[in-house]
Amino acid sequence: MEEIKIMKLACKRHEFQTFCNHSPTALGWKAESASERIQQRFRALEIKSDFHMHTNFTDGDSSVQDMIRAANEKGLAKIAITEHIRAGSPWVDKYIEAVENGRKSSGSAVILGFETKLLDMNGTLDISKSAENRAELIVCSLHRIPGLNIMEGDTTIQKLDPHKTKEVYLEALRAICRNKSVDIIGHPFDLLHKFNITMPDETEMHNLASFIGAHGKAVEINTNYCVPPPEFIRICRFHGVKFSIGSDAHHASKVGDISWALEMLRSAGGNKNDVMDLMRSD
Q1: Pairwise CA distance, residues 103 & 81, whole Å
Q2: pLDDT tens, residue by residue, 201-213
Q3: 26, 65, 141, 262: which has the fewest C-beta neighbours closer than 10 Å?
Q4: Judging by beta carbons within 10 Å of its beta carbon (0-12, 13-18, 19+), is residue 207 exposed, middle or buried?
Q5: What would you measure as the largest C-alpha separation in the chain, in angstroms?
Q6: Among 18, 20, 52, 21, residue whose Cα is nearest residue 199
Q7: Is the pLDDT score of 192 beyond 90?
Q8: Alpha-carbon distances of 90 from 58, 81, 162, rounded to whole Å
Q9: 75 falls within a domain
Q10: Rounded distance, CA 69 to CA 124, Å?
Q11: Partners of 185 in the β-ladder
Q12: Measured between alpha carbons, how far is residue 155 from residues 168, 177, 194 in Å?
C-alpha cells in the first residue's frame, strides 16, 4: 500500500486536499484495518457533539424532530440546531417552539441556535434583537463579503484585486469578533477557497488567531466545507482559541458527520479540551 502523504476528502461542495504528517503504512497498519484505526482515533477524542445543522425551516430537508432523532440514534451527547436567520425571518417563534418541544424527550442535549451573516464592517448581524436574545448560541458566517458586496457564486470577485479582497475578508472576520453576541465564527476561509483567493500567510493567521482569542470567539471546524486548513487550526491552538465541531448537516442522515473535523483537530494536536462549552454564560 502506497504511503498517503495527501489525504483527499470529498466534501459536499468541493474537494479539499490537506497535507497530513501521518500515513497508515508508516504507523504499521494493514490496509484492511486502516479505516477502523482511524475511527478508533475519532472515538478516542471523546467528542460526541455536532454544533452546526439546519432544518426544513430554511434550506434543510429534515424537520427539527428528525434531526434530534438522528442525534439520539447516533449517540451524540450534544447538538446545536443553528437555523439560518435574517432579521425579518417570520418563522422564528415556530422554530423555537419546535426545538423546545423536541428536546423534552431527547437523549441528546439540544441547544437552540441561529446561523446569521455579517451585514457591515461595524459588526451588525442579520438577526432581530428578539431572536438574538432568545438564542442559546449564535454562529456568524461570511456568506458574503460586506465591504465588497460579494455574495457566494458572484463572479464579480474574479475581477477584484486578490490581495485587497483578502484584506477585506480578514477585516470582516475581525468585525464578527467585535460583536459580543457571536459565539462561533462559522466555516472561516471558505469564500477564499471558493474564489481561489490567496490564503492568509502565517503572520496574518497568527494576527487573526490572536484577535479571535482576545475576543473570546470559537472557530468552527466545518466538515461540509472542509475548512479551516490544518495550519490555521494549529495556530489557533497556539493562541488558546477554542473550536466548535460542525457537520453543517442539511439532512438527518448527515447529523454527526464530523469525521473530517475530528481528524483535523487530532492532527493539529487537539483534543476534547480544545472544544468550547456551548452553553452561553450570559
Answers
A1: 11
A2: 999 999 999 999 9
A3: 26
A4: middle
A5: 57
A6: 18
A7: no
A8: 11, 18, 38
A9: yes
A10: 34
A11: 140, 219
A12: 17, 27, 11
CATH code for the domain of 78: 3.20.20.140
Count of residues making up the chain: 282
CA distance 132 to 280: 12
Q: How far is CA 91 from CA 69, 98, 135, in A?
A: 22, 11, 14
Cβ atoms of 200 and 170 within 8 Å: the answer is yes
Number of domains in the chain: 1
Q: Whole-angstrom Cα distance, residue 80 to residue 180? A: 19
User: Does pTM top 0.90 for this prediction?
Assistant: no
The answer to the question of residue 33 being in a domain is no
Is pLDDT at 32 greater than 80 in this prediction? no
Specify the DSSP element, H or E, that contains 165.
helix 162-178
* Residue-number span of the structural domain to which 205 is assigned: 6-14+47-274
Strand 150-151, strand 144-145: pairing: antiparallel
What is the mean pLDDT of the segment spanning 226-238? 97
Question: Shortest CA distance to 176 belongs to which of 218, 204, 228?
Answer: 218
Any domain includes 212:
yes
CA dihedral sign, ordered 238, 241, 242, 244: negative
Cβ neighbors of 200 (< 8 A, separation 6 or more) are 166, 170, 189, 208
Tell me, yes or no, whether 34 lies in a domain.
no
Cβ atoms of 234 and 205 within 8 Å: the answer is no
